[in-house]
Amino acid sequence: MRTVYADKAIPLTADFTLRLYIAGDSPSSRLAEQNLKHMLTLMKADGGRFEIIDVLARPELAEEASILATPTLCYEHSGRRRRIVGDLGDPKKILAFLGIEMKGDAA
Amino acid sequence: MTARDIDAADVLERVKTGVKAFDDLVMGGLPRARTTVVGGTPGSGKTVFATQFLAQGITTYGENGVLVTFEEPSQDIEANMRSFGWDLRKWRKDGALAFVDASPPAGDELVAGDFDLAGLLARIQHAVKTVNARRVVLDSLTQLFDHFIADPKILRRELFHISSALKKSGLTVLMTAERNSEYGEITRHRLEEFVADNVVILRNVLHREKRRRTIEVLKMRGSHHAEGEAPFTLVANQGVVAVPLSSLRLEQQSSEVRVTSGNPAIDEMCDGGFFRDSVTLVSGATGTGKTLLVTNFLAGGVAAGERAILFGYEESKGQLFRNASGWGVDFARMEEEGNLKIICLYPEAQGLPDHLLTIESLVDEFQPNRIAIDSLSALERIAPDTGFREFLISLTSFIKKREIAGLCTATSKSLIGGESASEQHISTLTDSIILLRYIQEQDRMHRGLMVLKMRGSEHAKEIRRFTIDSRGMHLGDAFKDAPNVFTGADNDFTR
Fold first, then answer.
1. Which residues in chain A are contacts of B110 at CB distance < 8 A?
2. CA nearest B110 in A: which residue?
3. What pLDDT, in 10s, does the model give residues B212-264?
4. The one catalytic residue among B63, B229, B306, B314
5. In angstroms, rounded to a whole number, what is the distance separating the alpha carbons of residues B427 and B429?
């Protein structure tokens, strides 16, 4: 398992977890990783955790989380779960779906 | 069929599903390391068939399995399959079976952009490794398509990938898929086109207010298979039980041993009695004495030290007992002594395949030397035409295989002469036919009996008049002026 903790410079809030399940270094997996990093820079949040899990290396973790498709981004926040399947190509749409505020939002 | 195909058929190792008649249809079983798609409408028995494939692998053939479910959680499947006698939970605990629960997760999900199903494949491969599986079932792909409804193209690509990867590991894969109609496109989303080496269709057709389940092998890459629909039924503690048809071979030995018909005069007409492994049809209008012949047949067997079984579909047990004692035969005592078994069933109580299985299992349990069925016409009433013919073929072949003497009755619809539909069906399938007819002579009505055919034996050709009284049937002289027993229209000759 490759576990990558978010860069300290990125402000993260509270107790949420983001887990990205990928399959080796397939093109869509690499694309999702890049897009996620970019997305993290847009987030207006403190704290939290962020992991990347390779299902080829750790199939039991995929089993545990009932992952079918890769890449899948799992978001957990105070018991609420949301999933995004795909290469995370549209960070704004994803953040809106997750209900996470973006930097520079007027809100 | 090219030479190459024949070679492939020779080398393809077979994986038995354990549904015996089905394995016969596909020349021994599903080819190893291939993918079979099982298509069917909801309720057609796909999950049962697929689970049975795994269950038989574990219990009979020493092959462990993985069950991937896309709809029901594993606990539900375990509960549902218990009625077929399959203890999935125990197998799971014993490490013979692994589940992959691929039902949609709780919570919201957004699908955006390209993805693959490497997660699913990794989980299946992990489960395969854990229990050292040789068989994998995915039930059902349709739910997976519904889950990723917007991306059928990706799914096709990914399923092809999963299928290839599993086959490469030597796994025999069975995938179920839903169909919209019994005789429409093969599966919804046409998934058989890109994943299936073999296609099997389960049907559950409503015909004349009766359900009729059939299984058909539609395609089997590089191999022969029997064509057409074979009936099957779902049985508690067994699962899918297919009724063998196309695999039917006339392999039974023909016996020269004669047994009594229960009436010395009829034995004489038949050149010494019925053959031990033959099926005789008694055909006649209502009231001509068919049930009496059945009673004699049973009593004659028991008197000769045989065991006899009767399946009655027209009268209750009480009525049959009363009829018999009216002719001086004590069925109750015979049953008490264990030499006779009488089973009375409403024809409508179950479908024909189930009737056949009831007969087979009771015969195997009681081990009789002779069997009577009264009447086939009552059974014909409940069945669509093709179903009845299949039933008869299976029944007569079963009776012959067990080398027991069979007597079946059929009721003619018209009082004088005439052939009923069941006679037409049956006449080619039974070895002997005895006709009972009302025959008019001047101003009196008589009963006449003739042996119409008897395979492999001489038999009397005349029509004998007979009477019935409190001691049974008495055969008299032959009729002098031959009336036409088929049309009953003997007057026509003179016109």
1. 82-86, 93-94, 97
2. A84
3. 888 999 888 877 888 878 888 888 888 888 876 544 455 555 667 889 999 99
4. B314
5. 5
| Per-residue DSSP letter, A74 | E
> Do residue A55 and residue B122 have CB atoms under 8 angstroms apart?
yes
Asked if the model's pLDDT at residue B438 lies above 80, the reply is yes
Whether B3-242 and B258-494 share one fold: the answer is: yes
Superfamily (CATH H level) for B3-242: P-loop containing nucleotide triphosphate hydrolases (3.40.50.300)
B178 is an active site residue? no
Return the CATH fold of A1-65+87-101. Glutaredoxin (3.40.30)
Q: B103 to chain A nearest CA, in Å?
A: 8
Q: How far is B14 from chain A (nearest CA, A)?
A: 30
Residue contacts between A and B (CB atoms, under 8 Å):
107
Quote the pLDDT of residue B495.
36
Unique residue bearing structure tokens 């107790």: A15
Cβ neighbours of A54 in B, within 8 Å: none
At residue A38, the pLDDT reads 87
Domain B258-494: which topology? Rossmann fold (3.40.50)
Question: How many C-beta atoms lie closer than 10 Å to residue B359's C-beta?
Answer: 21
Q: Which tokens go with B366? A: 């009681």
Is B458 a catalytic site residue? no
Q: Indicate if the pLDDT at residue B419 is higher than 90.
A: no
Q: Is B119 on the interface with A (CB under 8 A)?
A: yes
**How long, in residues, is chain B?**
495
| Per-residue pLDDT at A105 | 56
Cβ contact B113–A90 (<8 Å): yes
Task: Tell me the domain boundaries of chain B.
Answer: 3-242, 258-494
Which of B71, B268, B315, B360 is the catalytic position? Answer: B71
Cβ separation B119–A68 shorter than 8 A:
yes
C-beta of residue A44 within 8 angstroms of C-beta of residue A105? yes
Residue A103 vs residues A42, A76, A89, B323: alpha-carbon distances, Å = 6, 20, 18, 96
CA of A7 to nearest chain B CA: how many angstroms apart?
26
Give the ipTM of the model, two decimals please.
0.83
Res A5: pLDDT: 45
Whether the pTM exceeds 0.80: the reply is no
